[in-house]
Amino acid sequence: MMLRQKSLFRDKVFVAIPEEPWDAKSVLSWVIDHASDSAEIIIIHIVTAPNFESRQQILDSYLDECLRKKVRAEKRVFLFTKIDEGLIHLIKIYGVTELVMGAAANRHYRRKMKAPESQTARNVMQQAHSHCNIWFICKGKLIFFREANYCLLTKSKSARPTCSVGNPKMDLQSYIQPNLEAKTSEYMYIKEMKQRQEAEEELSQQKKEKESLKQVILMLQNELDWYRYHSNENANALQEANQQKHLLEHHISEYNKVKRELDDAVKEARGMRMEKELTAPCAYGAMNSEFSLLELEQATQVFSSSLNIGRGGFGSVYKGFLRSTTVAIKILNTESLHAQSQFQQEVAILSRVRHPNLVTLIGACPEASALVYEFLPNGSLEDRLNCLDNTLPLTWQVRIRIIREVCSALIFLHKHKPHPVVHGDLKPGNILLDANLLSKVSDFGISHILLESSVTGSDAHFTSQPMGTPAYMDPEFFGTGELTPQSDTYSFGVTILRLLTGRAPLRLIRVVQGALDDDDLHSVLDHSAGEWPLGQAEQLARIGLQCSEISRQKRPDLQRNVWRVIDPMVKEAPAPLSQSFRSMFSESSRAVTTPSYFLCPISQVVMRDPQVAADGFTYEADALRRWLDSGHDTSPVTKKSLSNRDTIPNHALRSAIQEFLRQNKLQDLFAQG
Asked: Any signal peptide, and if so, which residues (predicted)?
């Protein structure tokens, strides 16, 4: 009885391909001949070394063979130490139920072969999981079949039925095939029955779940009906509440609308009142005088170029003699689009504010858009920093005092009532010096009286065309057009750094910050001002950097944070030498050399009250006290920690200094300075 082709394998069948191509092809061909149209062949190949790339081409040829025979197939390659152990492991973990593999140890096939001869095949036959049917093939012939329940069909005598006794030439294949077909049918029947049983159990479970779900739905439906019934009682109340809510929201909306209109009206009224105040004729009456154009021409010799002391985009400044007083007359450029507004702005502000460190407006000439100020003979701070006309450099004591005076003027402007004033263009060129080097802030042409901003809730002025000097202009004002008192704080910070270093403003912030980071501030200080006290210089540098922060929220408050540091600093600083003394001392220094140990290591001036500190060095008493009070606990010379803050008067050195000054006839000047 011949086995019917393509009926043995109907589902997945795993084929273990040996390494020898001749054996592999015979095994694969046998499986293809006995596979049905629905079967799928899984070609597995086990290698014992990781370099199995060379086997891929051969495996691909096996897939091509299956494709030609119209049989579905795929390949899988596994790496194991031993082939038999790999097959046994794969059968177990993948639940393989159909496996076909080679039976012979070499290519010699013997007709009397009754069982697999290779050790690999024998190990698989004996140790593979019992759920797997295994066919052993050699040269396209079925040699042995291990049934899943271990009932083995072999060619041995014990496996043959009794009717085969006495017929030794009985064809082995004709005996095995019918039994094999019967076993296969039985196996397929059991498998089908098992699948049917599982399907019936699953269907029964689904029916139970469906019935349970129906009960849950019914219960929920009853609860929903109950809630609907009781909710109807509250429907009218809820509807009425919603109506009341909408009515209340409408009233709130109307209230907010009226409030906004009222706020806008108040703001508009304040603006109109301020505009009226700024442009009112009585503004000129607040000044001492109103001058005619003829008076100005007579005072300046018809605006002679010899009396011109300044020129810029705003116009020209002339020195004049008006009504028995030396004055400065600023003629605004009438061709400028902003000339008239600058004139009115400066008159409106300076006619209302008075401060020792603000330039005094004496009068105005509306006819010529001219402003008359007090005359300040020492020019601008910018001129003095550049030593214009070979003037002597400002001492560090004078510079600290100027910082204090400008800070005082800004605090006064920013706290002015009823409305604050922001300068808008603070810089050394707009800080003038009188005969005693007293500083006064000038040029209020682009200044503004501030109103409270509805956007920020603070005093501010908004403009679409920010004006000012770029190097001193607040970056946030330049970017947003919002001018606030903090805008002046930024300009003040840059001005402090200029007084410390004497350098141009461009990239000055970065230079000073780098020097502080490197603990080398001394290298960027302006030494033409004398030897700066390092403690005070560092404090001023940090204040300047804080004031010139990019973000205005990080800038300090001038009154609360800056004034409380600068004011004591000026009061405690030694009085600067007079200009005459400095001149005489510099002339005599060619012949007289002051011993270095007479100079305080901190202030670099001749000591009046020398005191020995814990580090063994002698300092001026006031300079050492300022150093310690500023937070330092280290020696100004050695930079090492001081063991204590006690000092001992150095009477011997004090006597030597006084004798030196007496011999060089400098004692009286020193006492005066």
From this structure: none
- For the chain, where do the domains classified as CATH 3.30.40.10 start and end? 582-672
Q: Which of 16-20, 610-614, 668-672 has the lowest mean pLDDT?
A: 668-672
CATH of 378-573, one of 1.10.3470.10, 1.10.510.10, 3.40.50.2000, 3.90.78.10: 1.10.510.10
> Is 425 one of the annotated active-site residues of the chain?
yes
Mapped onto helix, strand or coil, the DSSP state of residue 349 is helix
Identify the residue with better confidence: 188 or 206.
206
Which residue is it, tokens 């601008």? 380
- Packing angle between helix 396-414 and helix 485-501, nearest 10 degrees? 180
Helices (H), 481-635: 485-501, 508-517, 534-547, 563-572, 579-588, 621-629
The per-residue pLDDT for range 517-536, each reduced to its tens digit, is 999 999 999 999 999 998 89
Between 603 and 60, the higher pLDDT residue: 60
CATH number of 285-375: 3.30.200.20
- The DSSP symbol for 394 reads P
pLDDT band at 159; cut points 50, 70, 90: very low
Parts of the chain belonging to CATH 3.30.200.20: 285-375
The domain defined by 12-160 carries CATH number 3.90.1720.10: no
Average predicted confidence (pLDDT) for the chain? 81
What would the pLDDT profile of 5-33 be if each residue is shown by its tens digit? Answer: 546 888 899 999 887 777 888 899 999 98
- The CATH 3.40.50.12370 portion of the chain extends over 12-160
Residue 139 labelled as part of a binding site: no
Task: For residues 386 and 374, give the distance between their C-alpha atoms in angstroms, rounded to a whole number.
Answer: 23
CATH architecture of 582-672: 2-Layer Sandwich (3.30)
d(CA 203, CA 209): 10
Neighbours of 597 (CB within 10 A): 13
In which residue ranges of the chain is CATH 1.10.510.10 found? 378-573
In 3D, which of 528, 526, 497 has the Cα closest to residue 391? Answer: 528
Out of 425, 459, 474, 622, the active site residue is 425
Task: Locate 594 and state its tokens.
Answer: 């002051």
Residue whose tokens read 């052993």:
136
Question: What would you measure as the largest C-alpha separation in the chain, in angstroms?
Answer: 161
The CB-side HSE value for 492 (13 A sphere, CA atoms) comes to 31
Position 201 scores a pLDDT of 87
Q: Do the Cβ atoms of 137 and 172 come closer than 8 Å?
A: no
Phi-psi region of 252 (alpha: psi -120 to 50; beta: other; left: phi over 0): alpha
Q: Which of 282, 442, 257 is nearest to 348 (CA)?
A: 282
Determine the 3-state secondary structure of 432 from DSSP: strand
At position 353, the amino acid (one-letter code) is: V
Give the amino acid at 201.
E
- Residue 173's Cβ-side half-sphere holds a number of Cα atoms within 13 Å equal to 7
Q: Residue 513 burial by CB count (10 A; 0-12/13-18/19+): exposed, middle or buried?
A: middle
